[in-house]
């Protein structure tokens, strides 16, 4: 059965509903509110398999069966990191753990964990941008 998306007219919450192609495409919730249908571009497929962003096992299973490039896997990893941040309301703990490990092993901060400065100075050169 195809998946159809509907958006609440006031809260703009989106739900997915599986309906037959011959069914009447409307969604009315338990309070009698009719939701409007969201039309999506058919040139791409929506991944309906949501995984727990905190589950290492589900991540390995999902990316092991993924078709695409290494960069696609990194993009997916970044999406899960953002989900963890949103759920917890603070920085992703796995990301923080990685940054701390990097700093401990190398003696300096990870490039993505450094403050965004416009000046780099060493004993031999100075660059401002």
Protein described:
With 129 residues, this protein is of the alpha+beta class. It contains three helices and six strands. The longest helix is centred in the middle third of the chain and has 19 residues, at 70-88. The termini are far apart. The mean pLDDT is 85.
Q: Could you estimate the helical fraction of the residues in percent?
A: 25-40%
Unreliably modeled segments: none
Q: Based on helices, strands and strand pairing, what is the structural class?
A: alpha+beta
For the terminal residues, how far apart are their CA atoms?
A: 55 Å
Mean pLDDT: 85
Number of helices: 3
**What gyration radius follows from the Cα positions, in whole Å?**
22 Å
**Overall geometry:** elongated
The total of beta strands comes to 6
Going across the major beta sheet, what is the strand order? 2-1-4-3
Q: How is the main sheet built?
A: 4 strands, antiparallel
Summarize the structure.
The protein is of the alpha+beta class and 129 residues long. Helix content is 33%, strand content 18%.
SSE topology sketch:
Elements: E1 3-7, E2 14-18, E3 27-28, E4 34-38, H1 56-64, H2 70-88, H3 93-106, E5 119-121, E6 126-128
Antiparallel strand pairs: 1-2, 1-4, 3-4, 5-6
């Amino acid at each position: 059965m195809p998946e159809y998306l509907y958006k609440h007219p006031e809260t703009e919450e989106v739900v997915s509903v599986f309906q037959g192609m011959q069914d009447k495409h409307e969604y009315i919730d338990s309070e009698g509110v009719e939701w409007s249908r969201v039309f999506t571009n058919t040139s791409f497929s929506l991944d309906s398999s949501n995984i727990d962003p905190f589950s290492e096992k589900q991540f390995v299973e999902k990316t092991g069966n993924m078709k695409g490039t290494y960069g696609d896997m990194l993009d997916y990893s970044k999406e899960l990191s953002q989900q963890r941040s949103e759920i917890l309301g603070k920085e992703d703990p796995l990301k923080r753990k990685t940054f701390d490990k990097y700093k401990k092993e190398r003696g300096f901060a990870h490039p993505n964990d450094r403050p965004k400065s416009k000046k780099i100075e060493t004993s031999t050169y100075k660059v401002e941008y």
